[in-house]
Amino acid sequence: MDEIEVIIPNLSLRYSGGTAVNRTIAPLIASKLDAVWFGPDAPAGIAQLSVLDLLRLRFQPPKQHKVRIWHARRNVEMLVGLVLKWLGWRFSVIFNSAGQRRHSAYTRFLISQMDEIIATSEISASFLERPAKVIHHGIDLESYKPPEDREAAFAATGLPGKYGIGVFGRVRKQKGIDLFVASMLRLLPKYPDFTAVVIGLITADNVAFVDKLKADIAAAGLSERIRFLGELPIEDVPAWYKRISIYVFASRVEGFGLTMLEAMAAGNAVVATRAGAAELVIDDGVTGVLAPTGDVEALTGSIEPLMRAPEQIAGIGERARARVMDAFNRNREVDEIIDVYQKIWTKA
């Protein structure tokens, strides 16, 4: 217990982008430091801390440093870390921010109490009202490497057509799922070689939203070619990037947009709205295609050239993966995060 240096809390019952990021980097941090995971959805490669063990840490001073790191990504994780610190746990609390909007007064208060702040982009940092270290997300390049034969991978799904086009993430308006569906209603009748897939959790408050989309799809006679596959097991998602050829990042509002990086790493041609970090990641027309947010006609116009000439997709996908390998490598992200930890330990 006294050897624990870093605690990575994951205090969300819903699987989200923050959980995905934590799961990606936590095992790598654990390979370099004595790090543990606290909460559900623990990945392989890192030990789990129980509630009882967390309570025991109150009486187990750290052996390596004067404080342990509590690395939060959500309000609830900041709050729990601060309460434990105020009650005598020897913690320094870090907040990793991906938000791209003015934070609430409550969140601003929590942020003001943090020992250090990390932002996932320069845009996110601009909303924090205090200095932050900018560390871009990284991707597991091995898990998201392109397939040897993308058309064969898609054919194995049994879906109609030769090519897949998809959007992944929680199925809600913020993610632009309605924009994606509206574009597909316009384009799929013209391009019969394509089938669209939507992968992600549909929460109770979004059932009516999805039912309306499905009704529109059925009315257009496209129920076989626009498929809602629901929430899949975490380990099954990377294979779907390898099956589709075009990935559409249609968000209206986004923190960073991890799925965009995952798709690029897998060699997809990505069409992204200018939300999250899209403009920082994609060189328009070279490593992907950018479109305005919230504009069905513009999104449709950005997707159609790729569907019209699918021979372009492989080249864009190759350049996209090279971009991710160069600038959004997971090992680089972890090393920069550990540098922040070391800064805290040096000052403590």
Beta-strand percentage? 15-25%
Write the CATH homologous superfamily of the largest domain: Glycogen Phosphorylase B
Shape: elongated
**End-to-end Cα distance:** 20 Å
The CATH topology annotation of the largest domain reads as: Rossmann fold
Total domains, how many?
Answer: 2
| Strand neighbour order, sheet with most strands | 3-2-1-4-5-6-7
- The low-confidence parts are none
Oligomeric state as shown? single chain
Q: Report the sheet with the most strands, covering strand number, pairing sense and barrel closure.
A: 7 strands, parallel
**H and E string:** EHEEHEHEHEHEHEHEHEHEHEHEHHH
Second rung of CATH, namely the architecture of the largest domain: 3-Layer(aba) Sandwich
The level of helicity is 40-55%
Query: Rg to the nearest angstrom?
Result: 21 Å
Please state the structural category. alpha/beta
Care to count the β-strands? 13
Structure, described:
The chain is 41% helix and 16% strand. The chain folds into 2 domains: 6-138 and 329-347, Glycogen Phosphorylase B (Rossmann fold); 150-327, Rossmann fold. The two termini are 20 Å apart. With 348 residues, the chain is α/β, with parallel strands linked by helices. It has helices at residues 17-32, 51-56, 75-86, 105-112, 122-126, 150-155, 177-187, 207-219, 237-243, 258-265, 278-281, 296-308, 313-327, 330-347, and strands at residues 6-9, 35-38, 47-48, 68-72, 91-97, 116-119, 133-134, 163-168, 194-199, 226-230, 246-249, 269-273, 289-291. The protein contains 14 helices and 13 strands.
